[in-house]
Write a structure and sequence with these properties.
Length: 224
């Protein structure tokens, strides 16, 4: 899989890909992640990529020309399954979207900034708009990192135990059940007996029951 991220602040994105699961996935050649500085696609003296919005109003807007040059250049080298724009008014990221994107081959992620991008960028180039929540960040870079993590961890071979991702919260429409590890008792608080029983049928029944209980209590909207 290849992910190309277009940004005005590539330095804000590098560290998440230099540690943990994302770093391991890159080192194992399971994914390629490339950062493209939008300022490299402008011919202006000061490498401007933004301008005032027509009609007046506060905030600067990312211009269409450097974005066009970057996306068109990338598309001339390979085909892309999706060109994604990170924006607070996009479709809220969920596990279903992450699952679907993890099965693609090549995607572009455009990070919004300032007041956003010229609407013509969204009309002409973007195939999917994604938000990580109903709030506004300074730019789309952190959202892009979240999206990449959600996708990359699902790729075969990334996690040491490939079944782990299949039992994550939201994979079956429910929250995950409680989990425990050693010691079996700590300061009077004990691990449920069923988890120590060795009866895997009963353990699975307990987990399913607790997953439903937690979802009903914390996220009843998921059960609708």
């Amino acid at each position: 899989m290849r992910i190309d991220i277009i940004t005005v602040l590539p330095e804000l994105l590098t560290s998440p890909f230099e540690a943990s699961i994302l770093k391991r996935a890159i080192e194992k050649d399971l994914v390629e992640v490339h950062f493209h500085n939008l300022r490299d696609y402008t011919d202006t003296k000061y490498r401007n990529v933004d301008d005032y919005q027509f009609g007046g109003g506060a905030g600067m807007v990312l211009m269409i020309e450097p974005i066009d040059k970057c996306i068109t250049g990338l598309k001339s080298e390979r085909e892309y399954d999706e060109v994604i724009y990170m924006t607070p008014d996009g479709e809220t990221l969920n596990q279903k979207t992450a699952n679907t994107l993890s099965m693609t081959k090549n995607i572009i992620i455009l990070c919004g900034h300032y007041k956003g991008v010229d609407q013509r960028v969204r009309d002409l180039f973007i195939t999917k708009e994604i938000s990580i929540g109903d709030y506004v960040l300074s730019g789309g870079e952190l959202g892009a990192a979240v999206l990449c993590d959600a996708i990359i961890r699902l790729l075969p071979g990334v996690l040491n135990d490939e079944t782990s991702a299949l039992t994550d919260t939201f994979q079956d429409g429910l929250l995950a059940p409680p989990v425990y590890t050693r010691p079996a008792e700590y300061k009077g608080s004990k691990v449920p007996d069923v988890l120590l029983s060795g009866n895997f049928g009963k353990i699975e029944e307990w987990r399913e029951s607790k997953a439903y209980e937690r979802t009903e209590k914390l996220r009843p909207d998921l059960l609708e």
